[in-house]
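Subject: Sanity check before I submit

Could someone independently write out the structure tokens for this chain? I want to compare against mine line by line before I put it in a report. The sequence has 281 residues.
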Amino acid sequence: MRVARFWARAQVEEQGYGRGAWGSSDARLEEAQAIAEEKARQKVAEVVAADDWSLHHYDYERHDMPEPIVQDMHDASGDRIAAITINRYGANVLNTARLVFVDVDFPEPLPGPGFVGRLLGRKRPVEDFQGAALSRLSAWAQEDAARGARVYKTAAGLRYLLTFPAMAPDGQDTSEMMRELGADPLYAKLCQAQGSFRARLSPKPWRIGVSGTPKLSYEKLENPSAEARAWMFKYEDACRGYAVCSLIDEIGQTRPPDDNTARLIAMHDERAGVGKGLPLA
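---
Independent answer below. Compare away.
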């Protein structure tokens, strides 16, 4: 998983070329800074050696998405099995390679009946998309008797939590599974790049009436301004009236294979508001 306690960014320039890079460490900030500087030097050396201006603009940092950790989970040996981080718009996100999450987004609804509706075509009910998605999931589960998934309804689609099999976030079989189940392509790419599956645990601010989201970069989250702190307090207060998802079905074998998986599922359900009867956001 590309999560860490400490993140630092370095910028190195040589012969007119510049390159920035992030470094991370669970041990100390100084180590993260040293790693960032070495990565930046390597990137500049590549650009200088190629003497290619286009490489100067290439997004080498596309895989780096530093987010502050607000909660860590470890196994009995002390290895991290999950981390809850804060993303750029203030929501809490579960990061783990132990649980497979699949996000399936429904298309935006078309206009309803009437002249505009007839002009653009009849609106396909959300139920049609949900039924088709669950049919794909059921077919996938039936291919192996050990496969299983907990199915959650979200504000804009479905979330699958696969209890079996365990899969590597960046594995080819995972990519194929995501396509087969109709996962959001951007979500699938993010999981691959970050080396972890991600599941949002708190509502999107604009869905719960909290506007004016500040640009919450890693630096601003680590040392928030008074404005940012006030916004985050308002957001956290508003979150209490909403859930992220609700459990609607269980398909196949859904018994957790071990205690750590059971802990993660319980934590996900509690933090996402499952079973609380709250509106989804």
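---
OP: Matches mine. For the report I'm noting this point. The first strand starts at residue 6 and ends at 14.
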